[in-house]
Design a protein that fits this description.
By secondary structure, the protein is mainly beta. Helices cover 1% and strands 42% of the residues. The protein starts with a helix and ends with a strand.
C-alpha cells in the first residue's frame, strides 16, 4: 500500500474558536483556552483506506451522525464544555466502517515535531482511536491542540513530549470533554495512547512501543486486544503457525519473531473456534508489527483488525 499521500496530509487551518458555556465538575479543572496552540497541521493523521463508499450521514447503529453521543463519564472523564471547533474542516462519521482489516505503515521521520516540549528530556507519543460509537475526537496535550480530528481506526504520527506526567484531553468536535487524564512519558520512550471503549464510556490506554530487534531476515509481531465486547481472543497466523492465545482486553502481548513473508491473520474468541475476522500481512525484515483488535460497533463480535507497521529505515 502506498502511504506517501497519508504522510503529506494536513488538517484544515483552525479559525478563531467559537465561544461556548463551560460546565465543570469537581474532578475536572477548567481548561484555559487562551494559551492553546494549534499543532494539528504538523501532525498528520493516518487513515484507513476507503475502498467502499458508505452513507456517512449515519453511524453503524443507524443513528444520525448529528446525534450527540454522551455516555456516563468514567472516573477521570470530565463534563467541561470547550468552545466548539468550526465545522468547515471536520469529517463527521466514519466512511470506513465496512473495512475490517488493513495495514498502516509508519516511516521514520528525520525530524519529529514537538507536541509539548519544555525540557531537553522527552519521549514520543502518538494517538490511536479504537473507540466505536463516537464522532471524531479532538486531542490536546497540556492545552495544546495536537490532533484536530481523529476518527475510529485512525492513528496519528509520533510527536515529542517532555518527560514526566502530562495531561491528555480527549474532546468532541462540539467541545465536550470526554476524558482528561495524565499519562507518564519516559525519556527516550515511544508510546501509543489508545482511546478505547469501556463498559460505561471511554478511557485511554498507554501502550509501550518498545523497540524489537530481530535477526536478519526476520520481523517482529505482537497482538493487542482493545475490544470491550470480546474480553479474550486468540490471534492466529497461518492456521496455527503462530498463535497468541487468550489475549485479554487491554492486554498487549510480547513480540514474536517471524521470517519475512506473507501471513494470514485469523481472530476468534478464546472459547470458540469460529473466526470472527481475518486479514493478511506481509512481514518485512527489520520492521515491527502490532495487530490491534477493536470494535467497529458496540455489538458483540463486531471487531476489526488494524495492523500498524513501524519501519526503522
Amino acid at each position: 500500500m502506498d502511504t506517501s499521500s497519508f504522510s503529506d496530509r494536513k488538517a484544515a487551518p483552525v479559525s478563531a474558536p467559537i465561544s461556548a458555556p463551560i460546565r465543570k465538575t469537581e474532578e475536572t479543572p477548567e481548561v484555559k483556552r487562551q494559551d492553546i496552540q494549534d499543532l494539528s497541521d504538523i501532525f498528520p493523521v493516518i487513515s484507513m483506506p476507503n475502498t467502499e463508499e458508505t452513507d456517512s450521514s449515519q453511524n453503524t447503529d443507524g443513528r444520525s451522525i448529528n446525534t450527540p453521543v454522551v455516555l456516563l463519564p468514567n472516573p477521570g472523564e470530565g463534563a467541561t464544555i470547550l468552545p466548539a471547533l468550526p465545522s468547515g474542516g471536520t469529517n463527521l462519521g466514519n466512511p470506513n466502517n465496512n473495512i475490517l482489516g488493513t495495514i498502516i505503515t509508519m516511516f521514520p521521520r528525520p525530524i519529529i515535531p514537538c507536541f509539548f516540549c519544555n525540557t531537553t528530556q522527552y519521549g514520543t507519543v502518538r494517538f490511536l482511536n479504537a473507540a466505536a460509537g463516537y464522532n471524531p475526537f479532538v486531542i490536546y496535550i497540556n492545552e495544546q491542540l495536537v490532533v484536530r480530528s481523529l476518527e475510529n481506526s485512525e492513528i496519528s504520527q509520533y510527536g515529542r513530549v517532555s518527560a514526566g506526567r502530562q495531561i491528555v484531553t480527549v474532546a468532541g468536535q462540539n467541545g465536550y470533554v470526554y476524558i482528561q487524564k495524565s499519562i507518564t512519558v519516559k525519556s527516550g520512550s515511544a508510546t501509543t495512547v489508545a482511546i478505547i471503549n469501556t463498559a460505561s464510556g471511554l478511557d485511554i490506554l498507554e501502550i509501550s512501543d518498545s523497540a524489537c530487534y530481530a535477526s536478519a531476515g526476520n520481523g517482529c509481531l505482537r497482538a493487542c486486544n482493545l475490544s470491550s465486547t470480546n474480553p479474550s481472543i486468540n490471534v492466529t497466523l497461518n492456521r496455527g503457525y503462530l498463535t497468541f492465545r487468550n489475549v485479554r482486553y487491554k492486554e498487549v502481548t510480547n513480540f514474536a519473531y517471524l521470517p519475512s513473508g506473507n501471513y494470514n491473520i485469523q481472530v476468534a474468541n478464546s472459547n470458540s473456534s469460529m473466526t470472527l475476522v481475518s486479514s493478511s500481512i506481509f512481514v518485512r525484515s527489520n520492521a515491527s508489527y502490532t495487530i490491534y483488535v477493536f470494535n467497529w460497533s458496540l455489538y458483540a463480535d463486531s471487531i476489526r483488525i488494524l495492523v500498524v507497521e513501524d519501519r526503522r529505515q
